[in-house]
């Protein structure tokens, strides 16, 4: 990219209203009065004046001292790229609300219908403030009076760059709609445009075309975007707006720049997952300068990532590119997610001898291979920088994260994004600070795409913050989604361990918050039941806890059943599940022996019914021999659950019999009471 530093504007044209020389409020130097739409202001006499109504293609350059009047109505004749900040003034129609930032002061002059913008080198705003303080509305301004527009809130919904392997151009001043239409594919080879959205060293600041409506129109037309922030520069350059030589301060400066860039991006409609590139111009590196740049870009990337945006850096391949590559594996710095490097006329495209091929290799590169070249497509000529893009957007974050607690664990649930996901990563920290990265904290889960996970191994009485990421097939992580949960506990008890079919059991629980020891009263606690052979839990009852945190419910299981009380928690409390209590259910089994006394050679019948019937299953007739039961024979149950055995002993004596039914998948085994047969 070509670098332009502060200089004098060469084009001076007549202005609306006139220029009067003299001494004024701008300072001790000679001043002149500039009038626009009846608004007069005193400026340094050395500032040339450019009337955009008479020279609509003049470039509004904030790297030079000048006064600009009006608003450009044609494509500005600007170099492809401008970096640096001078001081000057723009007086334009009041069509947008005043918005000041570092390096720029704006005042809405409603009485004249004028938006006054004084630009300056960050940290040196004295002249800008004096110029604005000198302004006054004259009598002729009344016909131009308007009310300052309100700021329009835009819902960020556009992702700047999606999946793209195509050429792009970047340009200092966002082109007019007619130009974008003329250059739209297939008229030109470009599929994306680099736009300068923010930064305290941005040279093209006015940009009347760069509005949310313009962005939305280009997005609808299929254009993608490279978002550029031109902020502080390396301390070993001639720029006045420099990164601190103290690494910790440089990190903070990078964070501040990133926060401002996100605000600018969102104001234009760009959503998280968009990449924003910090423009670091070429510098002659030293150890200290390298440390400053890498620290600044670390803070930049960290802050962007924390807000869900992708951290990018634009660098010269031989300076910033080489320095970043040398620290690629270093844990002392956070490297940018995407690298945009300038290495003009280098082939093959997307490569540079200063940046190893294995670095930023997962569709993370932009190569600027031509700078400030004139290109004409469909009859429209622009001065642009040319680039090749190899980028993919990161996946969206999971949404709707909820937590359902269990004793010593938590079930986390979420909704996956609609894009293809190769991995889900869940990690946790004790306390309220989430793990910063997918390698931080304690691992909970890392594996194939799922939408729920049981996080085990939680220590009682401790709150946890979980963070969930998804990773796509290119290895790019989504923004993290967090959930903090505090611990609770639930007990469980049953009135009986085993009951007969058609009987009932009472289940009880008490729920407590573990961090304070307080019982949880007035909360819904759900009793879940699961048949012994079933795979799913079913809600049996939901009971509101008493003032002592106690709940109870009566249930009449038809088969052997497992029970669990679950408190589902709330946003600030980890839910809990009780230990599982099993209540065995055995069938009712009647028994009859008739007659109970017979003569030798006669027979007796042992019969009865099993409820529920279990037709076709076997029962077993047993006879007691000493202290043991000995199998005699077996028989299948009839359709109504009846069993029948004919008993004909071969010797006189007293015999004790019983019938046994063995357990199946649903019920506990059972047996009849013993019956005594006397043979005489």
From TrEMBL:
Metal-binding found in the keyword field: no
The record places domain Fibronectin type-III at 394-491
Keywords, A to Z? Signal
Matching entries from InterPro entries are given as:
FN3_dom, GH, Ig-like_fold, Rv2525c-like_Glyco_Hydro-like
Q: Which Pfam families match?
A: Rv2525c_GlyHyd-like
Q: Where does the secretion signal sit in this chain?
A: 1-25
Read off the SUPFAM superfamilies from this record.
(Trans)glycosidases (SSF51445)
Write the protein's name.
Fibronectin type-III domain-containing protein
Name the source organism: Kribbella koreensis
- Taxonomic classification, please? Bacteria, Bacillati, Actinomycetota, Actinomycetes, Propionibacteriales
């Amino acid at each position: 990219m070509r670098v332009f530093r502060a200089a004098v504007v060469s084009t001076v044209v007549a202005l609306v209203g006139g220029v009067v020389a003299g001494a004024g409020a701008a300072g001790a130097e000679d001043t002149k009065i500039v009038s626009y739409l009846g608004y007069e202001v005193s400026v340094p006499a050395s500032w040339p004046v450019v009337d955009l109504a008479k020279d609509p293609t003049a470039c509004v350059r904030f790297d030079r001292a000048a006064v600009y009047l009006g608003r450009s109505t044609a494509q500005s004749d600007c170099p492809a790229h401008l970096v640096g900040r001078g001081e000057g003034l723009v007086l334009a129609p009041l069509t947008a609300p005043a918005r000041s930032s570092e390096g720029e002061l704006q005042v809405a002059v409603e009485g004249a219908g004028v938006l006054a913008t004084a630009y300056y080198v960050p940290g040196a705003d004295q002249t800008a403030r004096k110029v604005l303080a000198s302004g006054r509305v004259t009598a002729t301004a009344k016909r131009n009076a308007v009310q300052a527009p309100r700021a329009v809130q835009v819902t960020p919904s556009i992702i700047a760059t999606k999946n793209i392997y195509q050429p792009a151009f970047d340009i200092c001043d966002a082109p007019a709609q007619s130009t974008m239409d003329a250059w739209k594919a297939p008229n030109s080879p470009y599929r994306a445009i680099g736009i300068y959205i923010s930064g305290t060293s941005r040279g093209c600041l006015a940009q009347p075309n760069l509005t949310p409506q313009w962005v939305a129109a280009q997005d609808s037309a299929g254009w993608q975007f490279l978002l550029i922030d031109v902020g502080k520069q390396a301390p070993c350059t001639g720029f006045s707006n420099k990164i601190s030589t103290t690494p910790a301060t440089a990190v903070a400066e990078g964070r501040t720049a990133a926060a401002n860039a996100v605000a600018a991006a969102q104001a234009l409609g760009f959503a998280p997952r968009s990449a924003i590139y910090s423009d670091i111009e070429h510098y002659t590196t030293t150890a200290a300068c390298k440390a400053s740049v890498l620290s600044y870009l670390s803070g930049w990337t960290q802050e962007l990532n924390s807000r869900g945006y992708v951290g990018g850096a634009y660098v010269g391949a031989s300076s910033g590119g080489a320095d970043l590559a040398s620290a690629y594996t270093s844990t002392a710095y956070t490297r940018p997610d995407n690298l945009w490097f300038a290495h003009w006329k280098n082939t093959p495209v997307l490569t540079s001898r200063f940046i190893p091929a294995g670095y930023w290799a997962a569709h993370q590169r932009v190569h600027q291979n031509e700078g400030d070249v004139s290109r004409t497509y469909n009859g429209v000529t622009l001065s642009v920088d040319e680039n090749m893009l190899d980028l993919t957007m990161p996946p969206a974050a999971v949404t709707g994260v909820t937590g359902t607690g269990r004793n010593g664990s938590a079930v986390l649930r979420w909704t996956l994004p609609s894009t293809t996901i190769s991995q889900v990563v869940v990690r946790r920290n004790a306390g309220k600070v989430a793990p910063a990265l997918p390698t931080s904290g304690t691992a909970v889960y890392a594996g194939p795409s799922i939408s729920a996970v049981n996080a085990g191994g939680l220590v009682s009485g401790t709150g946890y913050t979980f963070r969930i990421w998804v990773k796509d097939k290119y290895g790019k992580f989504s923004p993290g989604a967090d959930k903090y949960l505090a611990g609770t506990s639930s007990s469980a008890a049953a009135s009986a361990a085993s009951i007969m079919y058609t009987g009932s059991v009472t289940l009880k629980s008490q729920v407590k918050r573990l961090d304070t020891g307080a019982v949880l009263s007035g909360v819904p606690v759900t009793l879940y039941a699961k048949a012994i052979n079933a795979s799913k839990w079913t809600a049996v009852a939901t009971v509101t806890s008493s003032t002592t945190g106690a709940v109870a419910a009566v249930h009449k299981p038809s088969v052997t059943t497992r029970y669990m009380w679950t408190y589902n928690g709330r946003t600030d409390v980890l839910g809990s599940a009780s230990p599982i209590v099993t209540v065995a259910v055995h069938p009712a089994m009647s028994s009859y022996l008739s007659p109970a006394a017979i003569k030798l050679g006669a027979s007796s019948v042992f019969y009865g019914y099993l409820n529920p019937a279990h037709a076709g299953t076997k029962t077993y007739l047993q006879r007691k021999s000493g202290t043991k039961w000995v199998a005699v024979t077996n028989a299948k149950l009839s359709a109504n659950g009846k069993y029948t055995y004919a008993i004909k002993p071969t010797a006189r004596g007293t015999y004790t019999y019983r019938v046994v039914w063995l357990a199946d998948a649903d019920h506990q085994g059972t047996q009849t009471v013993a019956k005594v047969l006397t043979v005489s």
